[in-house]
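Q: Sequence in, structure out?
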Amino acid sequence: MIIKKAIKSSFLSSKRMVIYGVSLPLNHLLFLALTKLYGIGMATSKKICAELGFSPKLFVGDLTGIQQYLLIRKIKENLRIENSLRDEVKGNVQALIENGSLRGFRHRNKLPVRGQRTHTNAKTARRVFLGMVIRGQKKR
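A: Exactly. Output:
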């Protein structure tokens, strides 16, 4: 019964497999396709495949229903991905802004946060930010 629910939650269509709302192409290697999920990089993807005993040459389309279930359960139990991770990152940035720290100030003003110089670099960020400010002003 649990396996049927897992197979339904990871919808396997003719060209893609969907996990947590993200579609994975069937013709990609599994460890490369897992990196499409927000919060899973190359190292984490390889670690998951090794722990589940999947071959590095396994394609997404070659997964059986039980393997899909094991993969989804492993990700769900051990990792925070997609929307929950995005919400956590947004909350962390908002906490920095609210507590008045320097990092929060730089986030709020769209400046580089990690010590990069702004005299000659970060022109794109400033141009985008200034473009938003200029577009927001009323014409006289």
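The CA atoms of residues 35 and 42 lie 6 Å apart.
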